[in-house]
Amino acid sequence: QQGSIVGLVNFDGSPSAINSYDEYGIPGAGNQGRFQYTGQAWLPELGMYYYKARIYSPTLGRFLQVDPIGYDDQINLYAYVGDDPVNGTDTTGLAEDDAYRFSLGGLTISASKNGVSASLSGVGTTVSVSAGNSGVSASAKFGSSSATLTGGRSGVAASASSGGVKAGMAANGSGVSGAISAKQAGAALAVQIGTNRVSVMTPSGRMSIDLAGKAHYDKASGRSIPTPHVKFQQLNTNSANGRSNLSPGTTRAGNMADIRTARAVMKRREEP
Fold first, then answer.
1. Which of 26, 72, 114, 117 has a CB 3.0–4.6 Å from the CB of 130, allowing a cystine?
2. Which residues contact 175 (CB under 8 A, 6 or more apart)?
3. How many other CB atoms sit within 10 Å of the CB of residue 210?
4. C-alpha span between 195 and 188 (Å, rounded)
5. Can you give the pLDDT of all 272 residues of the chain as single tens digits?
Protein backbone atom coordinates (compact mmCIF):
# COMPACT_ATOMS: atom_id res chain seq x y z
CA GLN A 1 0.00 0.00 0.00
CA GLN A 2 2.13 2.86 -1.38
CA GLY A 3 5.18 1.71 0.56
CA SER A 4 3.37 1.78 3.91
CA ILE A 5 4.30 -0.46 6.83
CA VAL A 6 1.47 -2.98 6.88
CA GLY A 7 2.74 -5.40 9.50
CA LEU A 8 5.22 -5.98 12.31
CA VAL A 9 6.72 -9.28 13.42
CA ASN A 10 8.39 -10.60 16.55
CA PHE A 11 11.97 -11.80 16.71
CA ASP A 12 10.79 -15.32 15.87
CA GLY A 13 8.88 -14.16 12.81
CA SER A 14 5.43 -14.38 14.30
CA PRO A 15 3.14 -11.38 13.57
CA SER A 16 2.80 -8.81 16.34
CA ALA A 17 0.60 -6.23 14.58
CA ILE A 18 -1.24 -5.63 11.31
CA ASN A 19 -1.39 -2.00 10.27
CA SER A 20 -4.12 -0.46 8.13
CA TYR A 21 -4.79 3.00 6.73
CA ASP A 22 -7.40 4.86 4.75
CA GLU A 23 -6.38 6.37 1.43
CA TYR A 24 -5.05 9.57 3.01
CA GLY A 25 -3.11 7.75 5.75
CA ILE A 26 -5.37 7.82 8.82
CA PRO A 27 -4.00 4.84 10.79
CA GLY A 28 -6.11 1.99 12.11
CA ALA A 29 -6.83 1.80 15.86
CA GLY A 30 -4.44 -1.14 16.32
CA ASN A 31 -1.52 0.25 14.33
CA GLN A 32 1.93 -0.02 15.88
CA GLY A 33 5.44 1.18 15.07
CA ARG A 34 7.13 4.49 14.53
CA PHE A 35 7.07 4.30 10.73
CA GLN A 36 3.69 3.80 9.14
CA TYR A 37 1.90 5.41 6.15
CA THR A 38 4.17 5.49 3.06
CA GLY A 39 7.04 4.66 5.40
CA GLN A 40 6.93 8.04 7.18
CA ALA A 41 7.39 8.73 10.88
CA TRP A 42 4.08 8.84 12.81
CA LEU A 43 3.77 11.52 15.50
CA PRO A 44 1.04 10.15 17.77
CA GLU A 45 0.97 13.25 19.98
CA LEU A 46 0.00 15.34 16.96
CA GLY A 47 -1.84 12.72 14.96
CA MET A 48 0.34 13.63 11.98
CA TYR A 49 3.27 12.37 9.90
CA TYR A 50 6.76 13.82 9.56
CA TYR A 51 7.54 14.01 5.83
CA LYS A 52 11.09 15.37 6.25
CA ALA A 53 10.43 18.74 4.59
CA ARG A 54 6.93 19.23 6.05
CA ILE A 55 4.31 17.93 8.46
CA TYR A 56 1.37 16.07 6.89
CA SER A 57 -2.10 15.78 8.39
CA PRO A 58 -3.95 12.64 7.22
CA THR A 59 -7.16 14.02 8.72
CA LEU A 60 -6.99 17.10 6.49
CA GLY A 61 -5.29 15.23 3.65
CA ARG A 62 -2.79 18.05 3.18
CA PHE A 63 0.50 19.47 4.39
CA LEU A 64 0.55 22.17 7.06
CA GLN A 65 3.35 24.18 5.44
CA VAL A 66 3.82 25.50 1.92
CA ASP A 67 5.94 23.48 -0.46
CA PRO A 68 9.61 24.57 -0.09
CA ILE A 69 10.15 24.18 -3.84
CA GLY A 70 7.23 26.46 -4.68
CA TYR A 71 5.14 25.70 -7.75
CA ASP A 72 7.62 23.24 -9.31
CA ASP A 73 5.49 20.28 -8.18
CA GLN A 74 1.91 21.58 -8.43
CA ILE A 75 -0.08 24.78 -8.19
CA ASN A 76 -1.57 24.00 -4.74
CA LEU A 77 1.28 24.54 -2.28
CA TYR A 78 -0.39 22.50 0.47
CA ALA A 79 -1.93 19.59 -1.46
CA TYR A 80 -0.69 16.04 -1.04
CA VAL A 81 0.11 14.35 -4.40
CA GLY A 82 -2.53 16.40 -6.21
CA ASP A 83 -5.28 14.98 -3.99
CA ASP A 84 -4.72 11.52 -5.49
CA PRO A 85 -3.09 9.45 -2.71
CA VAL A 86 -4.20 6.16 -4.25
CA ASN A 87 -1.91 6.61 -7.27
CA GLY A 88 0.88 8.80 -5.88
CA THR A 89 3.32 9.26 -3.01
CA ASP A 90 5.52 12.09 -1.79
CA THR A 91 8.21 10.62 0.45
CA THR A 92 10.21 13.85 0.75
CA GLY A 93 7.45 16.40 1.33
CA LEU A 94 8.71 18.27 -1.74
CA ALA A 95 7.25 16.67 -4.86
CA GLU A 96 5.38 13.60 -6.00
CA ASP A 97 7.64 10.58 -6.40
CA ASP A 98 8.21 8.99 -9.76
CA ALA A 99 5.88 6.07 -10.17
CA TYR A 100 8.61 4.18 -12.04
CA ARG A 101 12.35 4.63 -12.12
CA PHE A 102 14.96 2.49 -13.84
CA SER A 103 18.70 3.09 -13.86
CA LEU A 104 21.45 1.13 -15.57
CA GLY A 105 24.86 2.66 -16.05
CA GLY A 106 24.37 6.09 -17.57
CA LEU A 107 20.75 5.39 -18.55
CA THR A 108 17.88 6.60 -16.35
CA ILE A 109 14.18 6.29 -17.15
CA SER A 110 11.41 7.61 -14.92
CA ALA A 111 7.66 7.85 -15.30
CA SER A 112 4.77 9.24 -13.32
CA LYS A 113 1.26 10.43 -14.01
CA ASN A 114 2.77 13.80 -14.95
CA GLY A 115 4.89 12.37 -17.77
CA VAL A 116 7.98 10.38 -18.69
CA SER A 117 11.65 11.25 -18.96
CA ALA A 118 14.84 9.54 -20.01
CA SER A 119 18.48 10.53 -19.90
CA LEU A 120 21.70 8.97 -21.12
CA SER A 121 25.13 10.19 -20.12
CA GLY A 122 28.61 9.11 -21.06
CA VAL A 123 32.06 10.58 -21.56
CA GLY A 124 31.46 14.05 -23.01
CA THR A 125 27.91 13.12 -24.04
CA THR A 126 24.54 13.80 -22.44
CA VAL A 127 21.14 13.21 -24.02
CA SER A 128 17.79 13.76 -22.30
CA VAL A 129 14.15 13.61 -23.40
CA SER A 130 10.99 14.38 -21.43
CA ALA A 131 7.29 14.51 -22.21
CA GLY A 132 4.46 15.55 -19.95
CA ASN A 133 1.45 17.76 -19.46
CA SER A 134 3.44 20.91 -20.22
CA GLY A 135 4.91 19.61 -23.48
CA VAL A 136 7.99 17.89 -24.86
CA SER A 137 11.64 18.78 -24.47
CA ALA A 138 14.89 17.26 -25.65
CA SER A 139 18.51 18.20 -25.28
CA ALA A 140 21.83 16.78 -26.34
CA LYS A 141 25.44 17.68 -25.69
CA PHE A 142 28.42 16.23 -27.53
CA GLY A 143 31.65 17.79 -26.37
CA SER A 144 31.43 21.52 -27.09
CA SER A 145 28.33 21.14 -29.28
CA SER A 146 24.79 21.19 -27.90
CA ALA A 147 21.20 21.38 -29.09
CA THR A 148 17.81 21.80 -27.43
CA LEU A 149 14.22 21.42 -28.59
CA THR A 150 11.07 22.32 -26.66
CA GLY A 151 7.44 22.13 -27.68
CA GLY A 152 4.13 22.81 -26.03
CA ARG A 153 0.80 24.54 -26.45
CA SER A 154 2.52 27.90 -26.87
CA GLY A 155 4.75 26.76 -29.73
CA VAL A 156 8.08 25.15 -30.59
CA ALA A 157 11.61 26.44 -30.06
CA ALA A 158 15.00 25.05 -31.06
CA SER A 159 18.56 26.17 -30.49
CA ALA A 160 22.01 24.83 -31.25
CA SER A 161 25.59 25.83 -30.61
CA SER A 162 28.92 24.53 -31.83
CA GLY A 163 32.38 26.00 -31.79
CA GLY A 164 31.16 29.26 -30.28
CA VAL A 165 28.44 29.65 -32.94
CA LYS A 166 24.83 29.81 -31.75
CA ALA A 167 21.56 29.73 -33.68
CA GLY A 168 17.92 29.55 -32.71
CA MET A 169 14.43 29.30 -34.18
CA ALA A 170 10.93 29.54 -32.75
CA ALA A 171 7.45 28.90 -34.13
CA ASN A 172 4.08 29.73 -32.61
CA GLY A 173 0.66 31.02 -33.58
CA SER A 174 2.21 34.27 -34.79
CA GLY A 175 4.56 32.58 -37.25
CA VAL A 176 8.19 31.50 -37.45
CA SER A 177 11.20 33.47 -36.32
CA GLY A 178 14.89 32.72 -36.49
CA ALA A 179 17.98 34.41 -35.22
CA ILE A 180 21.56 34.07 -36.43
CA SER A 181 23.97 36.98 -36.60
CA ALA A 182 26.52 37.75 -39.29
CA LYS A 183 29.23 36.90 -36.75
CA GLN A 184 27.70 33.48 -36.12
CA ALA A 185 27.18 32.81 -39.82
CA GLY A 186 30.74 33.90 -40.64
CA ALA A 187 32.27 31.71 -37.96
CA ALA A 188 30.20 28.73 -39.14
CA LEU A 189 31.27 29.23 -42.77
CA ALA A 190 34.93 29.55 -41.73
CA VAL A 191 34.73 26.18 -40.01
CA GLN A 192 32.98 24.66 -43.02
CA ILE A 193 35.51 25.84 -45.65
CA GLY A 194 38.59 25.58 -43.44
CA THR A 195 39.78 29.18 -43.75
CA ASN A 196 38.99 32.52 -42.11
CA ARG A 197 39.47 34.66 -45.23
CA VAL A 198 37.89 34.63 -48.67
CA SER A 199 39.35 36.99 -51.32
CA VAL A 200 38.13 37.70 -54.81
CA MET A 201 39.35 39.99 -57.59
CA THR A 202 36.85 42.18 -59.41
CA PRO A 203 37.39 44.57 -62.32
CA SER A 204 37.59 47.46 -59.85
CA GLY A 205 39.79 45.84 -57.19
CA ARG A 206 40.17 43.11 -54.60
CA MET A 207 37.67 42.33 -51.86
CA SER A 208 38.81 40.34 -48.83
CA ILE A 209 36.17 39.00 -46.45
CA ASP A 210 37.48 37.98 -43.02
CA LEU A 211 34.86 35.56 -41.70
CA ALA A 212 36.41 34.91 -38.30
CA GLY A 213 39.53 35.63 -36.31
CA LYS A 214 40.97 38.83 -34.89
CA ALA A 215 39.30 42.22 -35.13
CA HIS A 216 40.76 44.82 -37.52
CA TYR A 217 42.09 48.03 -36.00
CA ASP A 218 41.30 50.97 -38.26
CA LYS A 219 43.95 53.67 -37.79
CA ALA A 220 41.93 56.37 -39.55
CA SER A 221 38.97 56.12 -37.20
CA GLY A 222 40.81 54.70 -34.21
CA ARG A 223 38.27 51.93 -33.74
CA SER A 224 38.32 48.16 -33.77
CA ILE A 225 36.16 46.36 -36.34
CA PRO A 226 35.31 42.82 -35.27
CA THR A 227 34.85 39.95 -37.68
CA PRO A 228 33.29 39.55 -40.04
CA HIS A 229 34.80 42.55 -41.79
CA VAL A 230 35.44 43.40 -45.43
CA LYS A 231 38.50 45.09 -46.89
CA PHE A 232 38.34 46.57 -50.38
CA GLN A 233 41.49 47.62 -52.25
CA GLN A 234 40.98 49.77 -55.31
CA LEU A 235 42.80 48.68 -58.48
CA ASN A 236 44.73 51.63 -59.93
CA THR A 237 46.43 51.68 -63.31
CA ASN A 238 49.32 54.02 -64.14
CA SER A 239 48.50 55.62 -67.48
CA ALA A 240 52.17 56.34 -68.15
CA ASN A 241 53.55 52.81 -67.88
CA GLY A 242 50.36 50.73 -67.80
CA ARG A 243 51.23 49.10 -64.51
CA SER A 244 48.51 48.33 -61.98
CA ASN A 245 48.62 48.26 -58.20
CA LEU A 246 46.22 47.98 -55.31
CA SER A 247 45.49 50.79 -52.88
CA PRO A 248 45.95 50.25 -49.12
CA GLY A 249 42.19 49.84 -48.99
CA THR A 250 39.43 50.54 -46.51
CA THR A 251 37.79 48.17 -44.04
CA ARG A 252 34.16 48.06 -42.97
CA ALA A 253 31.98 45.79 -40.86
CA GLY A 254 30.60 42.77 -42.68
CA ASN A 255 26.97 41.72 -42.97
CA MET A 256 24.92 38.73 -44.06
CA ALA A 257 25.20 39.78 -47.70
CA ASP A 258 29.00 39.54 -47.42
CA ILE A 259 28.70 36.06 -45.89
CA ARG A 260 26.54 34.99 -48.83
CA THR A 261 29.11 36.46 -51.24
CA ALA A 262 31.91 34.51 -49.57
CA ARG A 263 29.86 31.32 -49.75
CA ALA A 264 29.12 31.88 -53.45
CA VAL A 265 32.81 32.51 -54.20
CA MET A 266 33.86 29.28 -52.50
CA LYS A 267 31.10 27.36 -54.25
CA ARG A 268 32.28 28.59 -57.68
CA ARG A 269 35.83 27.55 -56.86
CA GLU A 270 34.65 24.04 -56.09
CA GLU A 271 32.92 23.71 -59.44
CA PRO A 272 34.86 21.71 -62.07
1. 117
2. none
3. 25
4. 11
5. 678 999 998 888 888 899 999 999 999 999 999 999 999 999 999 999 999 999 999 999 999 999 999 988 888 999 999 898 988 888 889 988 766 667 777 888 877 666 788 888 888 889 998 887 778 889 988 887 888 888 877 788 888 877 655 667 777 766 655 556 788 888 888 988 999 999 999 889 999 999 999 898 888 778 899 999 999 999 988 878 878 889 888 899 999 899 999 999 998 888 77
